Amino acid sequence: MSLDAAFARAAELDANDSLAHLRSHFDIPEDVLYFDGNSLGPLTFRSREVLHRTIEFEWRERLIRSWNEDWLAMPARVGNKIAPLIGAAPDTVIACDNTSINLHKALMAAVALRPGRTEIVIDINNFPTDIYIAQSVADQHNMKLIAVTADEIIGAISERTAVVTATHVDYRSARILDLAGITAAAHANGALMVWDLAHSAGAVPFNAAEHDIDFAVGCGYKYLNGGPGASAFIYVAPRLLAESGQPLQGWWGHSEPFAFEVGYRPAEGISRFLTGTANVLSMKSLEAALHVFEGVSMQQLREKSVSLTSLFVELAQEHLVDKGFVIRSPLNANERGSHVALGFAEGKPLVDAMAAEGIVADFRPPDLMRFGFAPLYNSHVDVVRLINRLSLH
Ligand SMILES: Cc1ncc(COP(=O)(O)O)c(C=O)c1O
Question: 289 CA to middle of ligand 1, Å?
């Protein structure tokens, strides 16, 4: 397909896109083509308005009264807005901290639930923070960290395994891991499963309840568009909540924080996974951005995401592969998340040059260009413009 024909087809796809109107919620500069929502989602108009109101009214006017009037309830309220996006029941998700800290809490809780077991299994290609955190948990318990490729995870799980952890969508290749198979293998061996949903939440469906997931964690600033440093989240299966403890016991996780008791008594539900004071401003921005998801199903988002990445892959095969670009994401859309990775020797200077022109993507060493296609605001015409620019190289 020529690029002219591709533009015409993309325009038709956009005209029939039932989610196209959602782009109007985002304040993306006119001269920017944005393909990095898998790293930092853009600003919503609503986040700006809510932050303004929070600063001018809740903070400036209401001052300390705002804690009782609104802020204390935020972690649970925001958690409940994230829950449907990851297929979780109400009151099983809470917004707090960042993904690294939540992963630490989940892994520590899981290891405590499996005393006597000596191994933690992890995807060796996981995002580095996941490996660092898992290594620290293993070291603290004198356990062994078994780091293997995604295809080797199931074979590495045994009755020695306390917990298995992996990222649902690989941060480099966008490959979707075998959620059902890996979780079932962990459970069949009596181990617990912790999924990192950093590259899933808001773009790729995940069903925590249906797959009987034990723990999951994820980011608020990527496809959820919460803003830089937005709160992350943690999910804990209801069947584990009562017996789960977490290592960072703090007053926000106490059953009665304002009783100021000397002894720690964990809250009944998911609140026990809180530690200290919520980051109100970033949580406000995240809550406002989550409003865009209301009335939109994950299935609709997935269909649009697949349509965008499939168009990119098809055009990359025709226009980029003969110029030295290598497609490093799965060609089968069912196995691919919401970004596409291209290997290219001169990837770093090309990503930098494009950013200077307002076409924003990202680069991961040694040679990987990543293009995030967010179904809430990217269009098919955006995809063809991107291919057009890359093909000029
Ligand atoms: C898969 C994955 N896990 C964890 C993180 C880190 O999250 P945080 O900085 O919130 O700890 C990232 C960041 O990009 C990531 O891609």
Answer: 19
| Residue 332 C-alpha from the chain's centroid | 21
Phi/psi at 99 (nearest 5 deg)? -65, -40
Q: In terms of domains, do 252 and 187 share one?
A: yes
pLDDT tens-digit readout, 100-131? 999 999 999 999 999 999 999 999 999 999 99
Instruction: For ligand 1, pick from 219, 223, 233 the residue to mutate: most ligand atoms within 8 Å of CB.
Output: 219
Residue among 15, 19, 31, 2 nearest 373 (CA): 19
pLDDT mean across residues, the chain: 97
Whether residue 305 contacts residue 340, with contact meaning beta carbons closer than 8 Å, is answered with: no
Pair (26, 95) in one structural domain: no
Residue 39 lies in a domain: no
Q: Which domain holds residue 318?
A: 3-31+297-391
Residues 48-103: pLDDT tens digits? 999 999 999 999 999 999 999 999 999 999 999 999 999 999 999 999 999 999 99
99 lines ligand 1 (CB under 6 A): yes
Q: What is the CATH number of the domain that holds 92?
A: 3.40.640.10
Ligand 1 centre distance from Cα of residue 136 (Å): 16
Q: Where a domain ends, among 277, 293, 309?
A: 293
Instruction: Tell me, using a 6 A CB cutoff, whether residue 127 lines ligand 1.
Output: yes
Whether 221 is a known active-site residue: answer yes
User: What pLDDT is attached to residue 393?
Assistant: 85
Looking at the structure, tell me whether residues 172 and 278 fall in a common domain.
yes
At 241-275, the pLDDT tens digits run 999 999 999 999 999 999 999 999 999 999 999 99
Q: Is residue 176 part of a domain?
A: yes
- How far is the C-alpha of 174 from the C-alpha of 168, rounded, in Å? 9
Count of structural domains within the chain: 2
CA of 304 to the centre of ligand 1 (A): 24
Whether residues 279 and 317 share a domain: the answer is no
Ligand 1 pocket mutation pick from 97, 103, 171 by most atoms within 8 angstroms of CB: 171
Does the predicted TM-score (pTM) go above 0.90? yes
> How far apart, in whole angstroms, are the C-alpha atoms of residue 17 and residue 275?
42
Based on the fold, state whether residues 170 and 259 are members of the same structural domain.
yes
Q: Which of 34, 221, 235, 377 is catalytic?
A: 221
Contact 270, 92 (CB under 8 A): yes
123 is catalytic: no
Residue 196 falls in the annotated catalytic set: yes
Q: How far is the CA of 231 from the centre of ligand 1 (A)?
A: 12
Spatial separation of the C-alpha atoms in residues 374 and 364, rounded to whole Å: 19
Same domain (yes/no): 7, 105: no
**Rounded distance from Cα 99 to ligand 1 centre (Å):** 6
